[in-house]
């Protein structure tokens, strides 16, 4: 089977924008992202939801394109795909930032306690829930504006998608009504 990737060219172009930290890091993450794809059957007539992405933890969707797609349906499908890509980029970037800052926090706290990264048996040291609660609180506080902005944009996009879905439903109903009148 040939593997199908949602928004293939857009997917790889936008990946380069949100990943930072050098060309090697880019290709490492590009491999991780591009290897998490799935393949719906070619004769499918529905949207397909894939397995969770390794970085964002979101499930990618391959949107069905009907043969006689109207301009309004096309606009809706493209907005949904664009919103999915935007959401994917945000959460992949947010999760990478979270993991890096969490690791830095743990290492700094262990160092301040005079402990190494590993214990005597070679196991990676961890902090207890109370110690980690300081990191979680600080991370959420530091990213409050970013999350608020994300939520605002998410609501705008989803309201627009819902409105377009209603328009498409009405358009289809009018078309069916028109066909019934022609037949009568």
From TrEMBL:
<dbReference type="InterPro" id="IPR018796">
    <property type="entry name" value="COA8"/>
</dbReference>
<protein>
    <submittedName>
        <fullName>Cytochrome c oxidase assembly factor 8</fullName>
    </submittedName>
</protein>
<dbReference type="GO" id="GO:0005743">
    <property type="term" value="C:mitochondrial inner membrane"/>
</dbReference>
<keyword id="KW-0809">Transit peptide</keyword>
<dbReference type="Pfam" id="PF10231">
    <property type="entry name" value="COA8"/>
</dbReference>
<keyword id="KW-0472">Membrane</keyword>
<comment type="similarity">
    <text>Belongs to the COA8 family.</text>
</comment>
<dbReference type="GO" id="GO:0097193">
    <property type="term" value="P:intrinsic apoptotic signaling pathway"/>
</dbReference>
<keyword id="KW-0999">Mitochondrion inner membrane</keyword>
<keyword id="KW-0496">Mitochondrion</keyword>
